[in-house]
Amino acid sequence: MCGRLNIIADPLAQLVSETLGIEFWTTTNHDVRPTQSLSVVSASSNHSFEQTALGWGVQPAWSSKLLINAKSETVASKSTFKYGFAHSPVVVPCSGWYEWSTQQGVKQKFLFEGQSPVLYMAGVVVDGNVVTLTRSPTEQCSHYHHRMPLILHHDQITPWVLGTIDERAHLLNVLPDEEFIISNAEPPAKPSAQMSLF
To answer: What is the pLDDT tens value at each position of the chain, 198 positions in all?
Structure first.
């Protein structure tokens, strides 16, 4: 799930900068794919926010596939992800994400957007790259896919990125407090069969 992102730099960069008090920038890309660079928000050495550019997805030595997602239910305990959860949490600001869903017998691509121009996806850093987190879907999203990104409200970014492990753990089951705007999108090539979507 969530194997493509939509990023619209204006007004996303300005809103993230204003919300988090940093100079955040990114470039518009309506079809961000795994292995491409993402602008993420992480903790700096002086325990404040900073922007970092990281590749999306990691391929551990034990896996033949690229891992781009980690389940929120197991991210704190699975050996591949638990260090990143404990020490390197990040948020990935984006404008939306895409899902493929079969509707009336036809496979279609749908764009999921928030009521605000910015969505904050929870992620963790693994081997110098970012892995985004997924959770069970809301009722609205369950009609399209059995998983969805772990979306944080802007006031949950501080406890996620700068907080304690317990504060992060409390956010692993957080539900979005708003409905998403869901629209049809042009289908690009199908996600690679070599990609593992946790």
So the answer is: 578 999 999 999 999 999 999 999 999 999 999 999 999 999 999 999 999 999 999 999 888 999 999 999 999 999 999 999 999 999 999 999 999 988 788 889 999 999 999 999 999 999 999 999 999 999 999 999 999 999 999 999 999 999 999 999 999 988 887 899 999 986 444 555 455 455
Q: CA–CA distance from 169 to each of 30, 42, 53, 82, 198 (Å)?
A: 31, 17, 25, 11, 19
Query: What does the domain layout of the chain look like in residue ranges?
Result: 5-196
With tokens 């988090």, the residue in question is 20
- Joined together, the tokens standing for residue 154 give 């802007």
CATH topology of domain 5-196: hypothetical protein yedk fold (3.90.1680)
Dig out the tokens for 120 from the structure. Answer: 């904050």
